[in-house]
């Protein structure tokens, strides 16, 4: 298992997880961190495009297809891969942020919206922080939706405390 700190952003669909993650990645990069992000998709997804060479390789039955250029690479595994395996492949970063994985063993930051019918997919008390647009009285450290700087500082402090324990 990786020793890179992992933090999961959890919430119901449409609550703002992706928006928060984009802002948080930008903030952590501004602070000099190397960041990896992994998204849990509960639905089928396809990153290949019909007719492209990689699509043709996968359609022919390749279990793994890799597309690589001088500036980036993508690996498409046409088989189930446990998240722990994926995380173990991530190297040379300071932090891994996940979108989803509410049942994973990593510290969770929940996003809650006042207009959401269901406020949280997991008990707020099991989270290390709450990001919300409404007052929160759970006793868990709380940040506004736009307080990405405060959330970034909180995560950095948590990483230091975890490293020292």
Task: Output the keywords.
165 residues, alpha/beta, Rossmann fold, six-stranded parallel beta sheet, two-stranded antiparallel ribbon, 4 helices, 27% helix, globular
Report strand order across the widest sheet. 2-5-1-6-7-8
Instruction: Indicate the CATH topology.
Output: Rossmann fold
Largest sheet: 6 strands, parallel
CATH class: Alpha Beta
Q: What is the CATH superfamily?
A: P-loop containing nucleotide triphosphate hydrolases
Shape: globular
- How many beta-strand segments? 8
CA radius of gyration: 18 Å
Gross CATH architecture: 3-Layer(aba) Sandwich
Low-pLDDT stretches are none
Strand content: 15-25%
Order of helices and strands: EHEHEEHEEEEH
Structural overview:
- The chain has 165 residues and is of the alpha/beta class.
- A hairpin with a 4-residue loop joins strand 3 and strand 4 (73-77).
- The protein has a single domain (6-45, 80-164), classed as P-loop containing nucleotide triphosphate hydrolases (Rossmann fold), CATH 3.40.50.
- It has a six-stranded parallel sheet with strand order 2-5-1-6-7-8, with helices on one face. Strands 3-4 form a two-stranded antiparallel sheet.
- It contains four helices and eight strands, in the order βαβαββαββββα.
- The protein has helices at residues 17-30, 53-60, 83-88, 148-164; strands at 6-10, 35-39, 64-68, 73-77, 95-99, 108-112, 129-132, 142-144.
- The model has no long low-confidence stretch (mean pLDDT 90).
- Helix content is 27%, strand content 22%.
- The longest helix has 17 residues, at 148-164.
- The chain is globular and about 55 Å long.
């Amino acid at each position: 298992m990786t020793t890179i700190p992992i933090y999961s952003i959890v919430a119901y669909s449409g609550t703002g997880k992706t928006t928060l993650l984009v802002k948080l990645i930008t903030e952590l990069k501004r602070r000099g961190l190397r960041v990896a992000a992994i998204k849990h998709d509960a639905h089928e997804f396809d990153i290949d495009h019909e007719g492209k060479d990689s699509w043709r390789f996968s359609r022919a039955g390749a279990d793994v297809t890799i597309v690589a250029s001088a500036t980036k690479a993508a690996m498409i595994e046409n088989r189930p891969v446990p998240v722990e395996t994926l995380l173990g492949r991530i190297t040379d970063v300071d932090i891994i942020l996940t979108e989803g994985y509410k049942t994973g063993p990593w510290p969770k930051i929940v996003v809650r919206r006042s207009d959401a019918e269901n406020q949280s997919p997991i008990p707020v008390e099991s989270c290390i922080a709450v990001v919300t647009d409404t007052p929160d009285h759970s006793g868990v450290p709380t940040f506004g939706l736009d307080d990405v700087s405060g959330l970034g500082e909180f995560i950095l402090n948590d990483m230091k405390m975890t490293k020292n324990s």
